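Recap quiz, item 2
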Amino acid sequence: MLGGELKERLEKIYDVTGTTLVTLDICDREAVLAKAREVKPYFIINCAAYTNVDGCEVNTDLAMAVNGTAVANIAEAARENDATFIHISTDYVFPGNLPVDQIYTEDMEPAPVSAYGRTKLVGEENAAKAGKYYILRTAWLYGLGGKNFVKTMLRLSQDRDELTVVDDQHGSPTSTTTLCKIIEAIMEKEPEYGVYHSTNEGFTTWCKFTRKIFELAGISTNVKAITSKEYKEMYPQSSDRPSNSKLSKEKLKAAGIVPVQWEVALEEYLKEELKEN
Ligand SMILES: NC(=O)c1ccc[n+]([C@@H]2O[C@H](COP(=O)([O-])OP(=O)(O)OC[C@H]3O[C@@H](n4cnc5c(N)ncnc54)[C@H](OP(=O)(O)O)[C@@H]3O)[C@@H](O)[C@H]2O)c1
């Protein structure tokens, strides 16, 4: 979802070599090193991951291989070629249990509670081995080229009069377009290396996010607010999600990179998404 849009955008400005699982398995160290030797990149950007959060709980070896170990291959390739490594990470490196009036900053200690979060944290540790690196932690990502929450809600609204959506989990919906713009700004400005929280500005809940999607799309389906506890009673198999995914953007803003409000990005996305259908 992110990689496809990023490649399309960057190709307008840079000489880009894009890879997919078919053309380069990032778990294959030799192949990663060979590709970097061939391309001699200035930047290497890793958008690849095993992103199925529930799947990570079951396929733990694969999750660790892709999200954790493989990142060391890319970091090694970056180091060998004196390239700067831009790696995408997640709010799931935090436990998500901070009181909701507080916000996670980059200097807070990660403590993941899911397999996905644990493997992505190993990925962060490996990304840092590149020396010249940016770890961009994003959250609640949606975009044109992939399955995501916005598309699911639009689809469900087609044959339901009412949807029940959790109203006690807080975070920042983030469009892939905004994240691409953040990556482009990082490439342009090359601020101090390190971790940067990279989401749209502003916070909401999944329920209020859904209401905004429907308001902007002109959909009349009612959105009923429920608690995470009520949701768990309805769907006992579902895995627990963080109640607080709020990431501070102060460090990003101090670097001169100011993401737009989530409502603005959502409106921009829906114009394209609804045009396609
Ligand atoms: N989506 C979110 O809500 C969210 C939230 C926070 C952070 N993030 C992070 O944001 C980044 C981009 O996410 P996304 O939603 O764009 O993910 P995505 O749509 O699931 O794309 C990940 C891509 O990685 C590929 N891949 C998997 N294993 C690979 C391997 N061994 N070698 C090479 N490619 C491999 C996948 O290929 P296949 O499809 O063929 O398997 C897929 O094309 C990831 O780092 C993710 O952890 C996402």
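Residues 1-2, 21, 25-27, 47-51, 66, 70, 88, 90, 120, 138-141, 146 surround NAP (CB under 6 Å).
The mean pLDDT is 96.
End of item.
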